[in-house]
């Protein structure tokens, strides 16, 4: 059972990201402020839900949240600042868009780059503990999945409609055969070191 809030006294925004461990595509983050009375028995960490359940929950979260937003950091930026900082930047970009200023940020994980002067709490596996972080995990995941499905139509050889850019064997095999795209993260180890230098990029 998820906790409804961390503190009774603050306007809390849950924050989570999706796509941090992928070889290709942007990293997405979402932040969500839920009303104190929000309850939904199906709400959970997005990784514990089926794709169908995530898709059902997304419009409910979007409708019932006080405010929500999604932030994106593209592969070129990821290569410039590293994936950890890119994940935090995506959260910052989501927070920038909120229509209500939160008083406390609940961050999934154990690290965060502070956002302006807002206090925050880092919560390991927070997406399975607090409703607002779980809601953010669902929005980040579903918006990123939609994005990867669109990219899959442009580059069908990589199987992104199913692997979403994660390092599956099929994805790595496709990189060996077809090279990389503008959407691949060049700062990541896309292939074993012996083959890494043979990559070429397609537009």
Can you offer a commentary on this structure?
38% of the residues lie in helices and 17% in strands. α1 crosses α4 and α2 crosses α3. It has seven helices and seven strands, in the order ββαβααββαααβαβ. Strands 3-2-1-4-5 form a five-stranded mixed beta sheet. The protein has a two-stranded parallel sheet with strand order 6-7. The chain is globular, with a radius of gyration of 17 Å. The mean pLDDT is 93. It folds into two domains: 12-152, Ribonuclease H-like superfamily/Ribonuclease H (Nucleotidyltransferase, domain 5, 2-Layer Sandwich), CATH 3.30.420; 156-202. The protein has 203 residues and is an alpha/beta fold.
Labels describing this entry:
203 residues, alpha/beta, Nucleotidyltransferase, domain 5, 2 domains, five-stranded mixed beta sheet, 7 helices, 7 strands, 38% helix, 17% strand
What is the strand content? 15-25%
Q: Are there runs of 5+ residues with pLDDT below 50, and where? A: none
User: What is the count of helical runs?
Assistant: 7
Output the helix-strand order: EEHEHHEEHHHEHE
CATH architectural grouping of the largest domain? 2-Layer Sandwich
Kindly report how far apart the N and C termini lie: 46 Å
Anisotropy-based shape: globular
**What is the SS-derived class?**
alpha/beta
CATH overall fold name of the largest domain = Nucleotidyltransferase, domain 5
Rg measurement, Å: 17 Å
The average pLDDT score comes to: 93
Q: Which CATH first-tier class of the largest domain would you pick? A: Alpha Beta
Domain count: the total is: 2
At the fourth level of CATH, the homologous superfamily of the largest domain is Ribonuclease H-like superfamily/Ribonuclease H
| Helix content percent band | 25-40%
Largest sheet: 5 strands, mixed
Number of strands: 7
Read across the widest sheet, the strand sequence of neighbours is 3-2-1-4-5
């Amino acid at each position: 059972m998820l906790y409804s809030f961390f503190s009774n006294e603050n306007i809390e925004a849950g924050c989570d990201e999706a796509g941090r461990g992928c070889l290709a595509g942007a990293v997405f983050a979402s932040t969500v402020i839920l009303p104190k009375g929000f309850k939904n028995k199906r709400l959970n960490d997005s990784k514990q839900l089926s794709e169908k359940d995530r898709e059902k929950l997304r419009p409910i979260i979007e409708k019932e949240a006080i405010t929500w937003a999604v932030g994106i950091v593209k592969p070129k930026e990821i290569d410039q600042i590293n994936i950890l900082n890119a994940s935090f930047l995506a959260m910052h970009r989501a927070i920038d868009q909120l229509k209500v200023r939160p008083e406390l940020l609940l961050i999934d994980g154990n690290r965060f780059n502070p956002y302006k002067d807002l206090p925050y709490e880092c919560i390991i596996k927070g997406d399975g503990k607090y409703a607002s972080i779980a809601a953010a995990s669902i929005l980040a995941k579903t918006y990123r999945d939609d994005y990867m499905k669109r990219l899959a139509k442009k580059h069908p050889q990589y199987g992104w409609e199913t692997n979403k850019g994660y390092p599956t064997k099929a994805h790595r095999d496709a990189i060996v055969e077809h090279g990389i795209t503008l959407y691949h993260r060049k700062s990541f180890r896309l292939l074993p070191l012996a083959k890494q230098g043979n990559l070429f990029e397609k537009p």
